[in-house]
Amino acid sequence: MRCLRQFLMVLLIASPALQTQTREKHFSEGGVGSLFSRSAFAHGYRHGYEEGYHSGNLDVNMGRIVQNRKTLLHGVKYGFSPGFGSRRSFEAGFEAGLTAGYSDGYAGRTFRAIESVRAIASALEGSPQPSDSASVSFDQGLAFGYREGFANGGSPAASGPPEEFHSIGCGQFPLQVAPDQDLTAQSSYCDGYRRGFVLGHTDARVLGADQAALEASK
To answer: How far is CA 30 from CA 41, 80, 188, in A?
Structure first.
């Protein structure tokens, strides 16, 4: 038992990424731990939404006018740590979540990030880690899917959000993710894309006209 404890201590000291995951509260959130460990975008979205929601709620309670996207992002602290994965992806997710959270907080809607993220993590918790390096394909798919889902959900002819992930196509697989057309990477990308599409589509439909003010100075 003593040897095991010593081994674990050495492992924690030697692995900054593992230390980050141990300290980061969102990695232990029920039903979403695996999603955040595989997707820096989804993890950043969760952080950004929380920050945005509190800011929007504060602004409306103080009688301030709604902020546009430019002022909302000015001086924002992303709170990124190397153990989260890709900085670029985390920050893109953070900005998407910040926008959605601010709109919800200012409009007095419920804090829906936990439910939304948990929904797209369905059937992922506890499943094997994808074999593509650092889950890059899954994360890139989720980020791209979010953008396309948001664009689709904001169109006048948009229907309700897809009820099941498998009903969504994953668009054209980008060669830069896996130039050799590795089937495992493609499958992982498409899995992330479908989940991201649902999240983005839902955000666009909930935010609706609120988005116009936030995008005014983009």
So the answer is: 18, 21, 22
